[in-house]
Amino acid sequence: MSHAPGSDPVFLDGTLTLLTSPYRRSVLFALSEHSPLAETEVATALAASDTLDDDADLLRSKLVHSHLPKLAKRGYVDWDIGDERLRRGPNFDDITPLLRTFVASENGSADGQSRPWQPSVGRR
């Protein structure tokens, strides 16, 4: 069920609604750089960022019970509650142009190359 962004108003509305959450945007931004990622790694890095005010345990709970299921349902994230690993989903490439737009907007970067999350996500 892949759609080209902008070709379907229902797709675009649903995707933009999904991206209103800084939690979901941060997960997608991180996966655009590194895939797969551990749930705990993402939650810890996001909790350490200046953007979100939750501790890692609360953030992981919010991700697992609210945000990751929504991303998985749209096919942007490949995840299930028992796996504890996040991967780019089958429809991830559909959202890439919108992610670049958000990155450029949030960072004032015309090329969309700056990243708004902690650089330690996905690096060992």
Automatic annotation (TrEMBL):
InterPro entries: DUF7344 (IPR055768). This is DUF7344 domain-containing protein. Residues 17-81 form the DUF7344 domain. It comes from the Archaea.
